[in-house]
Amino acid sequence: MIDIELIRQQPELVKAGMIKRNMQPALIDKARSLDSRRRELLVDVETLKAERNKASKEIGASKDKTAREEKIAAMRAVGDRIDALDSELAAVDAQLDELMATLPNVVEDRVPAGGEEANVVVKEWGDKPKFDFVPKAHWDLGPQLGIINFDQGVALTGSRFYVLSGAGARLQRAIISWMLDLHIRQGYTEKYTPFLVRSETLFGAGQLPRFAENLYKDHEEDLYMIPTAEVPLTGLHMGEILDEADLPRRYTAYSPCFRREKMSAGRDVRGIKRGHQFDKVEMYKFCTPEDSVAEFEQMMADAEATAQGLGLPYRVILKGAGDTSEAAHISFDIEAWAAGCGEWLEVSSISRVGDYQARRAAIRYRPKGGKGTRFVHTINGSGLALPRVMIAILENNQQADGSVRVPKVLAPWMGGVDVIRAEK
RNA sequence: GGAGGGAUGGCCGAGUGGCUUAAGGCGGCGGUCUUGAAAACCGUUGUGGGUGGCAACACCCACCGGGGGUUCGAAUCCCUCUCCCUCCGCCA
Q1: Of the residues A9, A14, A259, A354, which has the fewest C-beta atoms closer than 10 A?
Q2: Poorest-pLDDT segment among A40-49, A61-70, A73-82, A345-354
Q3: For strand B, is any atom closer than 7 Å to the CB of A34?
Q4: Which residues of A in 232-291 have their CB below 7 Å from strand B's atoms?
Q5: Those residues with Cβ within 8 angstroms of residue A267's Cβ, 6 or more apart along the chain or in another chain
Q6: pLDDT of residue A165
Q7: In whole angstroms, how far apart are CA A141 and each of A137, A398, A399, A422?
Q8: Would the Cβ of A59 be found within 7 angstroms of any atom in strand B?
Q9: If you average pLDDT over residues A354-361, what whole number do you get?
Q10: Measuring from the CA of residue A51 to each C1', which nucleotide is nearest?
Q11: Which pLDDT score is estimated for A266?
Q12: Cα(first)–Cα(last) distance of chain A, in Å?
């Protein structure tokens, strides 16, 4: 949620942001007119309520029966007018809230206007591997090694599901453990959260109402399966007022993620690139506005360290406004090179969210010495999405005989397996 | 699943229709005392919104788990939902 005050004071700035994202700037004018109508109604209804409060107090204190009866009758009429104005106000409030809930965050100046086509490569790291044979794609390599079984996933659940087996399952678990331990060393506190959350929690993180159709829902209980650990991590301090001394808070969490992928139906259908269920290790920070740029840059470095540690060549992308998360001021993606399918795969997205989520989830802090409360700033980033990391490792580290070298850092979790060979 | 009891400010906790502008305590902040600190004492201390003001601030409205209702007036009465606790049952 953006600050209504920003819309009042600098509507043109907010509109410019909408235009950069290819969205309708007229929505800002709509918000302004609803806001001013709301304030007119508030003045009227609050004046009447003040009158009623005063009279009610007098009624309570009065001993004169006739005077009491007269006042009660008069207040009955005032009460009716209050009811009428209140319901009109509630209608305006509901419209304004609904609109505000859908407005995206204002992007930074350096974010290019336009959608995905406007994305800019800002950095490349590592060398693409060279082969003296034709490298295979993981959808061939995985089944040949016996570590990815697509048929079983389809039989169990349906398309875009798969089963990992033996060294494949172990490799994924090793990456998760290594990443969590790395993030802990980087100063994050590990969290294990529910993977089912209420709608309020999703609203706080900005997933609802916009992504409703992309979420799996238990209709009986009004619970949703999380699309990312960012959701429960945002919710950890929902409704709280933190002390400045407690900031920054840096969390990391492993979780499975569930997405219907309705919006990208038909894309990336081969292999394990875009399943309905995937695992991810997430990083999340709550900090003061003053610290948020530095904490964001540090998280970028922390995410890059995971790709570097695994020896994955990657590039960093500054996302175009239309492709930037609606909650974010700015987002960078980390894309790992996958030699077999010959693609850059998005393995991480790091976003500086400002107070957008904090407003929605009511997460504030008390500034040291200062008065009142301020909204915290939040930052989120994936410490790499597992299936795509698996793809990059398998495809980049494959050898002529079809075996795959395991990155050295994973050794402690691989039980001595340094090369994955075809399973019997 | 069954029965009962709860949810009050940063925290604990009183409060069953108008003397509550939510008692009291803890914590926080300021002060007195002290070489300094502790203790003691005094004062102060919620959130959101609106109006006016350059501003410090002033005034008003709302908020006692969420939503709805009764009433001139609700923390208090009624309905409903959520969550927590105790006991029983069932299951891992």
Answers
A1: A9
A2: A61-70
A3: no
A4: 241
A5: A261, A274
A6: 94
A7: 6, 9, 11, 9
A8: yes
A9: 91
A10: B60
A11: 73
A12: 54
**What is the C-alpha separation between A265 and A337, in angstroms, rounded?**
23
Q: Give, as ranges, the nucleotides of chain B with any atom within 7 Å of a protein CB.
A: 10, 18-19, 47-51, 60-62, 68, 72-73
Domains and CATH numbers, chain A: 4-100 (1.10.287.40), 116-420 (3.30.930.10)
Kindly tell me if the per-residue pLDDT of A370 is higher than 80.
Answer: no
C-alpha A259/C-alpha A223 separation (Å) is 14
C-alpha A259/C-alpha A257 separation (Å) is 7
So what's the ipTM on this one? 0.82
The tokens for A261 are 């992928």
Q: Is the C-beta of residue A39 closer than 7 Å to nucleic acid chain B?
A: yes
What confidence score (pLDDT) does residue A362 get? 86
Cis peptide before A248 (omega within 30 of 0): yes
Q: Is residue A56 predicted with pLDDT exceeding 80? A: yes
CA of A79 to C1' of B76 (A): 21
A47 contact to strand B (CB, 7 A limit): yes
- Cα gap A208→A231, rounded to integer Å: 11
